[in-house]
Amino acid sequence: MKLKMLAVALLATINLYAININEKPKEVSISGENGSLVKDGGEWNSKMLQGKVYVIFYVDPDKKDVNEEFVQALKAKDYRKRGDYGSIAIVNMAATWKPDFAINILLKAKQKEFPETIYVKDKKKVLVKEWGLKDDASDILIFSKNGTLLFYKAGKMSSKDTQKAFDIIEANL
Asked: Which helix (H) or strand (E) holds 30?
């Protein structure tokens, strides 16, 4: 009996921190020793997920190519020209063996190449801990203009996932 109650309590606790489709996730910020915006070293806060349809890529640097097919298809759609669309790339720097200085160099180059994308360094797995995102993976999240989570996929996107993501983005622009 005690074991059952412990299992139920554990599952309930885990669910408190998990993100859920059609809900706004818990407010989270990444700053200071936890990480920062690549552009200026400032704070990233999930309150920023307002006013646009945002696609967030939360990626382990060792898994950066897992969803490259989806990334290229998304670029080809060029949603920025069609409306209120934004993209955020948050790098789970604690998930890799690669040194921070090397990742920082790459991220600064990416930020320069793609200035409209918001690049964020997560040094302490903040979104893994606070939102329950999958660690050591390639996570893709889509948020509505009011910050509600519309889509979440951990791991490789299938063609079905890709079509669903595009349908969600287009319906919410």
From this structure: strand 29-30
Distance between CA atoms of 156 and 161, rounded to whole angstroms?
9
Instruction: Return left, alpha or beta for 83; rule: phi > 0 is left, psi -120 to 50 is alpha, else beta.
Output: left
Output the pTM of the full model. Answer: 0.89
* Domain covering 2-172, topology: Glutaredoxin (3.40.30)
User: For 152, phi and psi rounded to 5 degrees?
Assistant: -145, 130
Q: What is the pLDDT of residue 4?
A: 53
Q: How far apart are CA 30 and CA 9, in angstroms?
A: 29
Distance of CA 61 to the CA centre of its chain: 13
Distance in Å from the first CA to the final CA of the chain: 50
160 is written with which tokens? 């079905």
Neighbours of 24 (CB within 10 A): 16
Structure tokens at 10: 């554990």
